[in-house]
Amino acid sequence: MRLSVGFAFSIICSSSLLLSCGAPARGGGTAGAGGSASGSAGASGAAGTTGTGGSSSGTGGSSIGTGGSSSGTGGSSSGTGGSSTGTGGSAPAVPFPTQACLDKANALLAQMTQDEKAAQTIQAERAQISNAQVMQYAPGSIYSQGGSAPSTNTPAGWAAMINGYRAASRQSAHAIPVIYGLDSVHGLGPVANATIFPHNIGLGATGDAALVEQVGRAIADESAGVGADFPFAPVIAVARDERWGRTYESFAETPDLVSTMGNALIKGLQFPTGGTKISILADAKHYVGDGGTAMGVTGANTSGDEATLRAIHLAPYQAAVAARAGSVMLSYSSWQGTKMHINKMM
Fold first, then answer.
1. 25, pLDDT greater than 60
2. Helix (H) and strand (E) counts for the chain?
3. Which end of the chain is more exposed for a tag (fewer CB within 10 A), N or C?
4. In degrees to the nearest 10, what's the CA dihedral of 196, 281, 174, 148?
5. Is the pTM of this model over 0.85?
């Protein structure tokens, strides 16, 4: 089970409401072997259709449009990319999330029992939950662990599986659609014939934020093509010790370059710059200090005092929040002996 920061926003608002009232228009199409999704966003409120392997779904006329051989159109017409905000990034022209989105999330929370709220914080592995259980318990998210994939490992097979979960969630008590997590830090690794890009360390070495944004757009297109709207990216760790086993997931060893590249990926993943692009949910991780642990030991204590933590490791998160990243994943590391998942001060 994984937990992300901000129950109301990251789980409820980022699933049904992000797709229906809080994000740019979202179309859909087929991800194709080695290709990108071709769905186009529409200005009308009509629900888009999908071809083989996918069914249309959407709240308030926002088209999910995942999977299939034909490209779905439709969706809400909220804004595309806007003015620059934060280091190396830009924010949408309209507030994100919109006030209507937040109001709807709060209204849903007011209707929910404690058990229903708890269920929304659960992210279940796909092989351990059925459509019937999704309908009954209404978890907030489902994900693929590592290489976990449907028996038919094609874009259409993924779309059919994810559409099944999402349709079941819409039949739950509050009809909150699940968000589907797929590790897509540098491409959709578990999906056969998907496009795989260099890891962050290679992208960071280019120093080319525009290129990183293009990578983000391609990942977003292919992710949306199979219905996976939660990519567990970007990693905005600042790697300070090469002995750390996940150094390759870091853009750089300096917070300024990590911030620039992280915000570029957030923009590419989450905020389209053109009407044909598809928005998925960025997930900045791992908050905070995972790249600065003593001797590079994964999950250990982050080295240095609080001033160092803020200057080096917090800075990329400040930039990511300014760039309107939709969610933040907590770190498995510790700060001053306390794991980040239970560190109230942090």
1. no
2. 9, 11
3. N
4. 20
5. no
